[in-house]
Amino acid sequence: MLMFTGVPPLIYYRVLISNLRSVLEAQFDSRVRATGHSYEKYNNWETIEAWTQQVASENPDLISRSAIGTTFLGNTIYLLKAVRTYGREIHMTEFLDKLDFYVLPVVNIDGYIYTWTKYRMWRKTRSTNAGSICIGTDPNRNFDAGWCSVGASKNPCHETYCGSAAESEKETKALANFIRNNLSSIKAYLTIHSYSQMMLYPYSYDYKLPKNNAELNSMAKAAVKELATLHGTKYTYGPGASTIYPAAGGSDDWAYDQGIKYSFTFELRDKGRYGFALPESQIRPTCEETMLAIKYITGYVLEHLY
Predict the structure, then answer these.
(1) Which cofactors, if any, are listed as required (predicted)?
(2) pLDDT tens figures, 207-217
(3) What is the distance between the alpha carbons of residues 56 and 58, in angstroms, rounded to a whole number?
(4) Superfamily (CATH H level) for 2-120+172-303
């Protein structure tokens, strides 16, 4: 089994954007004007939720949808065992004959909805914090991996607030419980973030290296090489702490410490020109090139099951 999650962005803007409103509006530059779900535009949660139901109902032999928990505001967290290319693409067909893929499209649903309704750059959950008027916890600082020891804040008003305790957030707990309940069959864990064009592996909460560091480094090197073959997009790679910065409480480190030895984080396009406001016109090429890296990792895992 390979596990994929979509979690909040890891990092802040590192460049000064003079007119944030115009940049955010420029995100929506796709010529696709479908009223429903489209792979080439940003979709709100209602559209994504409907899509998960649609693809499951249209492909009952290939896709199943299950609820693994609820958010603070009561939204259901759905996980898909999903594929669109079975029988049409030789490598994906082989992978899906031999492996199960679990895809969690959105982890922080409450926060994602808030980015559409109130504040586009929101990153935290929408839970209340005792003794504070500030809302939310950063889910990517809330896992029990060196929790709140570095690169995270104990102040509920800060963007990287780690929460009142590890797994304090319902969203984090739901994902962690799913992984714990299926740990014996999960061979790889991939989490998809933005931005910086990096492929990271443990550890981020410490400068120590994982036991299979040489293997993970070799996998990352080969994966980013594959990624670059399509559009020439250059990625850097390495352990999280030394490659991007130290940060505790990430799901990739936690998954690795649970025994999933192939655990990676993708930081997608770009390197800072658009940052978290990547235009829709870059969605397709980003997905195309990232899939090449994912296929490489999948093939490697299939040949190195443990």
Answers:
(1) Zn(2+)
(2) 999 999 999 99
(3) 6
(4) Zn peptidases (3.40.630.10)
